Amino acid sequence: MRRATYILVFFLGTAAAYHNETKEFVVPLDHFGFQRNETFKIRYIESDEYWNRGNGPIFFYTGNEGQIESFAKHTGFMWEIAREFEAKIIFAEHRYYGKSMPFGDKSLDNEHIGYLTSAQALADYAQLVNFLQGGKNLKPKYPVIAFGGSYGGMLAAYFRMKYPHLVQGAIAASAPVHMFSGMVPCEVFHRIVTSSFNVASKVCRDNIRQSWSVLRTFVANKTNADWLKKEWNLCVAVNDTKEDVQDLIDYLQGMYDTLAMVNYPFASDFLLPLPANPVRSVCQYLSEKLTGQKLLEGIGKVLQVYTNYNGKGECVNYKSTDYGNLNATGWDYQACTEMVMPMCTNGVDDMFEPMPWNFTEFSEECHKKYKVYPRPEAAWLQYGGDRLQAASNIIFSNGLLDPWAGGGLLSSISDSIKAVVMIDTAHHLDLMPQNSDDPESVKMARQEHKRNIEQWIRNFRLNNA
Description:
The chain is of the alpha/beta class. The chain contains 14 helices and nine strands.
């Protein structure tokens, strides 16, 4: 299947159209066993508009938890440097996401979901790269540079580590490779979320911290719960049950997490439509000390910015577990198996209710949902965690406003495992399209990325002359 189209990437606020084709590639259901012989198709987006077919590089985005079009649209850095490097661009869709479903609509059923792992996805990508090189285990003709952000950044790094004969180097943006059990304190993520709100307004932070107890007390009264449904535009009123109230609390905490994560200096619709500097934007409604119903009115205004900034939102479904514009339903299964990232709050160093990390409880919840138990050491054993001394040619970039930076690599390990730290940026902003509001740290990071890409390509050509 081929489908020619154009992807719009906003460059300095102006839409730039890049010609591309959406294609499919056949991969095994199971790369590591010999009992299952089924195959299925993963999608990939390809653009050779600027490609030097003689020896131009292949820029390969290791797709993560969502439909591949979203990552292609928001990874403008790859598109913008393709002409300079005469590169082919590939965005590969991760199995079990988007339309790359091994069992169609039943792929996420418990009896079929077991082949959703990072290792299987990387093996898909390895076969696709081999195909792009001409197949038949030929000597690679084109240098391949992997790119990825967030979980995709982890995959880009792991791709280089596991398949160094196929991948010359990797740009791993906002990749929380240290976020696994025992590597960083479980409270680090929400401390950074709190810090972002604290920078915007200490009063805003304090109002949020006080809001949890106010909310719990308020909704215990049915009349209040009905008022809240109307004021907050909730799809259903909050019943006075532990589960209902906790669903709303969890939704609000996820809202603050997301606002901190995508706290970009320009308006963006990466996860959902939001204004520029969204943390500062919502804190205007909580900038003075509020109590009782007035505090909940302020939180309601924050909620409306989060759910209906573009005026197209419907009622707020606080029971939903979706991921905004990303169709990332399968991620919960991955978090319940190999991507176990402990998180907790204490209500003192952060603005949330105290919630300790309880692996036993987490494990039982996973088993209840998927009939599996998590393996907290799996990712560390497969990929090295914080022991990456044997790896090479990977750039780990992190913005210190990003909560995921708490699990990122923030210090260089060697001359070829480098950390690029941006003090004033959020989640993988360096991979996004250029914008006139980009901070200098992002501009400098992109130049560093280009220097390393140039060096990796140069070394590939010297070694394959």
